[in-house]
């Protein structure tokens, strides 16, 4: 199933499933009331749905099938006539990992500037293990690192992203992520996929100039990531049965229709199963928590403006597409109004 949280004008927020080859949404609670004469406790919101597990999914399949066949009035809504919110508008938490090796290396070299360009040539001659970027990121090769984001700054498909007033350089990141469906701690990698409720696309918008300054202090990112509407997730949550192989998906990013980035989930050095196992060491994970993959970079392309030497500007439209999931579209609104931000020497470490 593809599950969405959406707002119907004058009719509030609803939980729905994608039908009609992606053109429409079945409003599950409305469908349940028509089908059974009473609302279902499973369909009050996405967090409740995720927590209720298999029984909620079974009921959703039943209602979706009924709505798709019977077409009851008021239960089907065109995607053109609703506002898609993030699948979980306020996740229980946000953690964003760094799963792609190429992003770690490329971002480090971008932060190093001229030294980074020399280091790239050094790798060409002597191999990656002889490069400075490799040695600066030795800890990343030992464990799947991550940071915690602001769960209250989440927006969905077609939401506008304002450039923070203190920033000059807004960037996108080509990512995807998982929502935890079943809680647990000390989860083994072999069991971790059973804890995934579904997948979604993630655009971790970043104020790069501020982020580079903050991380000179070996902490962060903070205001480089934390601003209103900085975390775009969507367009919906796709359950694992819809994706034959999660590590064989093509990912692309387009800005104003021009492809800027292309990659594949096959290039993840750290899988979601390994990341979940690491996070859950002596720590309980809960249904509704979100974990991002970090920027998708690899042999096919670079996954963010920092790596490409490009930046977003007001009016740009950013589209991230992941095979078997869909497309997450956001536009950049407003004008940047920097307030005393100066560009400092960036840190010689990977930028998330």
Tell me how many strands there are: 19
Name of the level-1 CATH class of the largest domain:
Alpha Beta
Structural class: alpha+beta
- Tally the helices: what do you get? 9
Shape: globular
Main sheet overview: 12 strands, mixed
Order of SSEs, N→C? EEEHHEEEHHHHEEEEEEEHEEEHEHEE
How helix-rich are the residues, as a percent range? 25-40%
Distance between the termini: 31 Å
Mean pLDDT: 93
**CATH topology category name of the largest domain:** Fumarylacetoacetate hydrolase, domain 2
Unreliable spans are: 336-352
Strand content: 25-35%
The total domain count is 2
Assign the CATH architecture of the largest domain: Alpha-Beta Complex
CATH homology superfamily of the largest domain = Fumarylacetoacetase-like, C-terminal domain
Please compute the radius of gyration using only Cα atoms.
21 Å
Q: What oligomeric assembly is this protein in?
A: single chain
Quick tags:
twelve-stranded mixed β-sheet, five-stranded mixed β-sheet, 9 helices, 27% strand, globular
């Amino acid at each position: 199933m593809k599950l969405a949280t959406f707002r119907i004008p004058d009719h509030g927020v609803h939980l729905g499933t994608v039908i009609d080859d992606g053109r429409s949404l079945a409003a599950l609670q409305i469908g349940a009331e028509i089908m059974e004469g009473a609302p279902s406790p499973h369909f009050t919101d996405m967090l409740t749905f995720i927590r209720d597990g298999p029984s909620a999914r079974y009921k959703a399949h039943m209602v979706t099938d009924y709505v798709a066949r019977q077409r009851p009035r008021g239960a089907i809504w065109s995607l053109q006539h609703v506002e898609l919110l993030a699948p979980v508008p306020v996740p229980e938490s946000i953690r964003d990992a760094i799963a792609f090796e190429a992003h770690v290396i490329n971002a480090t070299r971008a932060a190093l500037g001229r030294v980074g360009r020399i280091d790239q040539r050094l790798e060409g001659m002597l191999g990656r293990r002889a490069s400075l970027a490799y040695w600066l990121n030795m800890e990343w090769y030992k464990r799947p690192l991550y940071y915690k984001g602001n769960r209250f700054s989440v927006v969905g498909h077609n939401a506008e992203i304002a450039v923070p007033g203190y920033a000059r350089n807004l960037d996108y990141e080509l990512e995807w992520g998982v929502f935890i469906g079943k809680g647990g701690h000390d989860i083994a990698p072999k069991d971790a996929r059973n804890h995934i409720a579904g997948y979604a696309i993630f655009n971790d918008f970043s104020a790069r100039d501020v982020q580079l300054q903050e991380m000179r202090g070996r902490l962060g990112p903070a205001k480089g990531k934390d601003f209103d509407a900085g975390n775009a997730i969507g367009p919906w949550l796709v359950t694992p049965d819809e994706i034959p192989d999660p590590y064989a998906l093509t990912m692309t990013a387009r800005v104003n229709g021009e492809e800027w980035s292309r990659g594949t989930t096959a290039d993840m050095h750290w899988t979601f199963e390994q990341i979940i196992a690491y996070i859950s060491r002596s720590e309980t994970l809960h249904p509704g928590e979100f974990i991002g993959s970090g920027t998708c970079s690899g042999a096919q392309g670079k996954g963010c403006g920092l790596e490409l030497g490009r930046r977003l500007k007001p009016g740009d439209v950013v589209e991230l597409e992941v095979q078997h999931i869909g497309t997450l579209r956001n536009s950049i609104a407003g004008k940047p109004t920097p307030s005393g931000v100066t560009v400092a020497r960036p840190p010689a470490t990977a930028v998330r």
